[in-house]
Amino acid sequence: MKASDLNTTEYNEYYSRYIDLISKETTLINGFKEDLDMVLNFFKSIPSDKLDYRYATGKWSIKEVFQHLIDTERIFQHRCFRFSRHDKTSISGFEQDDYIVPSQANSKNLEALIEEFKAVRQSFIVLLKSLNDDDLKFIGNANGSDMSARAAAFTILGHSIWHVDVIRTRYL
C-alpha cells in the first residue's frame, strides 16, 4: 500500500500538511522503517548542548519536540488500531500542549527518548504487518472527522518529516 493510494476523503484536510510531505511511492512498512532511521539519525546528530534549546519563549525544547513525536505516534497508533478493527466509536482528540509538561521530556536524556521512540515505532510496525488492505481502508472517526486506519499511519510519517524540518529551520 502506497501513499498514493490514499484518498483525501480518508482524513481531515488539516492532516494534508503532513501527508503531502510523503513521497507518493512510500509504502507503509518500508516508510516506517526508513522514517525510523531518519528520525534516529537526525536526533543523534544534534549536539547535546542544543537538546534543551527553545527558539522562542513558550516554544518546546528539542527534547520536547522529540517527546511530542513519540506521544503523537502512540495516539495515532491507537487510532489506526481501533479503525483497523472496524471500531465505529468516535475517538476524542487530544491537546498536544497538555502532554508536554507531564511528559518530563527535559529531564530525560537522549538515550531514554531514543529507547522510547524505538519501542513505540517497533510496536506500530508490528501492528501494520498484521493488517490487511481492507482493515487499513476502514474509516472511523477521530476528533469529529473521518479517518482511515491507513491515513492515521501515513500521517505519522509526514508528522516526523514536518517536525524534523521545523527543528532544522528554527532550532539549529
What does this structure look like?
- With 172 residues, the protein is mainly α.
- It has helices spanning 16-19, 28-45, 62-84, 96-103, 110-129, 133-137, 149-171, and strands spanning 139-142, 145-148.
- It has a two-stranded antiparallel sheet.
- A hairpin with a 2-residue loop joins strand 1 (139-142) and strand 2 (145-148).
- It is globular and about 45 Å long.
- The model has no long low-confidence stretch (mean pLDDT 97).
The major β-sheet equals: 2 strands, antiparallel
N-to-C SSE series? HHHHHHEEH
> Which structural class best describes the helix and strand composition?
mainly alpha
Q: Any low-confidence stretches, pLDDT <50, length ≥5?
A: none
Which percent bin holds the helix content?
A: 55-70%
**Helix tally?**
7
Radius of gyration: 16 Å
Question: Which percent band covers the strand fraction?
Answer: under 5%
Report how far the terminal alpha carbons are from each other: 35 Å
What general form does the structure show?
globular
